[in-house]
Specification:
mainly alpha; globular; 13 helices; 0% strand; 294 residues; 77% helix; Tetracycline Repressor, domain 2
């Protein structure tokens, strides 16, 4: 019974997808501390990240429960399928949100003061597809605040450096989420929901996705320049760019067909985005180690 409940909870918040933002936050933390983050800060940053992301995902599932029940692609999610109760999800949201605020107080005063603002940003995303086709950018922002938060957690003050990384995350998630939204183009039009593909069509949406991912690479390069990283870093960015190019070559087949009705974003593509985040953290880690060793 306990194992089943834990599995349901993991499915509800798609726990493995925490990997999308966490590596960028840790890369920011590693850079801010010159490769030597205090263990307590490292621990509390991870706790804050997991709690914030769980709050956001559970809240999104709660807000979208009625929509998910009508969408053939999402009708078997835990809330529409009756595997978890609405009141239980509300408890998860409140407990994790309060936990996030309390965990932030373990870092420094500025992190604690900004924690309610961070919550407001990540929760606001859940409503955006109801009124704007730029909702993908708001999703990027919701995850993009993580590197800034990690930097503040480590230093106790603002700096320009993590905002380069925030911009990169916004572009990364927006570019990917536009591809993801092509799966629901017909359903979103029927329900009056907004997305890039609903507003601009398939071909223009795929071009926008490529544009955002190109911008991501530019912002990552800007972060490296701001941080004074060695050429090793840019070699890693080149590898990430090659992976993104491969993804878009796959999407190009959809563009040539001109029909997103039967398009499904494969689990392989989903995992690939997670591995891009992990790879970026490794690139930063190796770069910081390399710079300290020579």
């Amino acid at each position: 019974m306990v194992i089943e409940k834990l599995k349901t909870f993991s499915n509800l918040v798609v726990l493995p997808h925490s990997v999308f933002a966490l590596p960028f936050a840790l890369a920011s933390l590693l850079t801010a501390t010159h490769g030597k983050p205090p263990l307590d800060v490292f621990f509390w940053v991870i706790v804050c990240m997991v709690l914030a992301r769980t709050t956001a995902m559970a809240y999104n599932r709660l807000v979208d429960a009625d929509i998910d029940a009508k969408n053939p692609r999402t009708k078997n999610r835990d809330i529409p399928a009756g595997q978890i109760k609405i009141w239980q999800v509300r408890i998860i949201v409140w407990v994790c949100a309060l936990g996030f605020v309390l965990a932030s107080t373990r870092l420094n005063p500025l992190a604690a003061k900004l924690s309610p603002i961070a919550l407001a940003i990540i929760l606001f995303y859940s409503y955006t597809k109801r009124f704007t086709w730029t909702s993908h950018l708001f999703l990027g922002l919701a995850l993009g605040v993580a590197p800034v938060g990690a930097w503040i957690a480590a230093t106790g003050h603002f700096a320009i450096d993590p905002f380069w990384l925030m911009a990169a995350v916004i572009c990364f998630l927006a570019g990917f989420d536009i591809l993801y939204a092509t799966q629901d183009e017909a359903f979103d039009k029927e329900m009056g929901l907004q997305s890039w593909v609903v507003k601009w069509g398939l071909a223009n949406s795929l071009k926008a996705s490529r544009f955002f991912h190109a911008c991501m690479l530019g912002f990552l390069a800007g972060f490296g320049a701001q941080a004074g990283f060695s050429p090793v870093y840019y070699l890693g960015i080149g590898v990430i760019g090659a992976i993104l190019l491969y993804q878009h070559k796959k999407a190009y087949r959809l563009e040539k067909r001109g029909d997103s009705t039967h398009f499904t974003l494969s689990p392989v593509m989903m995992k690939m985005n997670g591995w891009i985040s992990v790879l970026y953290f490794v690139v930063v880690g190796v770069t910081v180690w390399f710079s300290k060793s020579f």
